[in-house]
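Design a sequence for this backbone.
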């Protein structure tokens, strides 16, 4: 987030919107542009996190071995929490999560847009390459979603797209296509990065692992997991549960952001 914020501060201001009447109109427009962009990303992040809040709540209960739910699985716990705590029990702690996720989501989405602009204007790189570079800096799923969106609007604009409500000259994906592309982007990103996540978590647990299982480097850890447990039960263990959380979360995040861009006149 610090790197993203630094890039945002160093970037040239966005193209000025038509100047408003009165003194300081241009500056006010520029300030409001950043505010609208910040709000769009923050709202998208909050909506995405709220979508999977019940799964996060259940995950925490199971990880903490809560005496009421430790004997249950994920889906049975999802049914048990509302019976014991009411449906709001599935969203316990979500308010505090929103305070954390709002600035994170705002900066992440803003960073991706600014990185794309910087790479295009400063380096003269465009197309899939500049999306890959910007996505690598802001988050592995931005590249996938941007590519799916670009390809879809290029080859089937009438079928998949529609004019943006805030700028008829800009094509945007239809809402259900946005959801699909966001979900696919999240799934692909998770599939690619999951072995590294498994490796990272295993290294973090190094102090409680038996001596013969301890590994000092990422390469050693990944090699150990693969050698002893294989791909499906080792490097990708638990991926299906991650899909259940990630796919709807990313689908809602990208769809909400695209809608907020239109609502706040960012296109």
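Sequence:
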């Amino acid at each position: 987030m610090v790197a993203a914020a630094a890039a945002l501060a160093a970037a040239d201001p966005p193209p000025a919107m038509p100047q408003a009447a009165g003194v300081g109109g241009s500056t006010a427009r520029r300030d409001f542009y950043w505010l609208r962009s910040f709000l769009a990303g923050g709202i998208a992040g909050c909506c995405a996190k709220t979508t999977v809040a019940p799964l996060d709540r259940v995950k925490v209960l199971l990880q903490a071995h809560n005496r009421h739910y430790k004997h249950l699985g994920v889906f049975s716990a999802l049914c048990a929490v509302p019976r014991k705590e009411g449906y709001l029990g599935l969203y316990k702690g979500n308010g505090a999560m929103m305070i954390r996720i709002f600035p994170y989501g705002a900066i992440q989405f803003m960073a991706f847009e600014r990185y794309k602009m910087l790479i295009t204007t400063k380096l003269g790189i465009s197309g899939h390459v500049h999306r890959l570079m910007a996505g690598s800096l802001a988050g592995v799923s931005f590249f996938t979603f941007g590519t799916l969106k670009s390809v879809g609007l290029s080859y089937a604009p009438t079928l998949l797209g529609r004019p943006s409500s805030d700028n008829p000259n800009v094509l945007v994906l239809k809402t259900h296509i946005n959801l699909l592309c966001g979900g696919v982007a999240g799934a692909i990103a998770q599939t690619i990065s999951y072995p590294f996540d498994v490796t990272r978590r295993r290294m973090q647990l190094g102090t409680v692992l038996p001596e013969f299982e301890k590994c000092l480097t990422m390469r050693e850890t990944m090699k150990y997991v693969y050698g002893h447990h294989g791909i499906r039960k080792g490097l990708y263990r638990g991926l299906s549960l991650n899909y259940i959380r990630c796919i709807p979360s990313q689908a809602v995040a990208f769809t909400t952001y695209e809608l907020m861009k239109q609502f706040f006149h960012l296109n």
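The beta strands are 161-163, 171-173.
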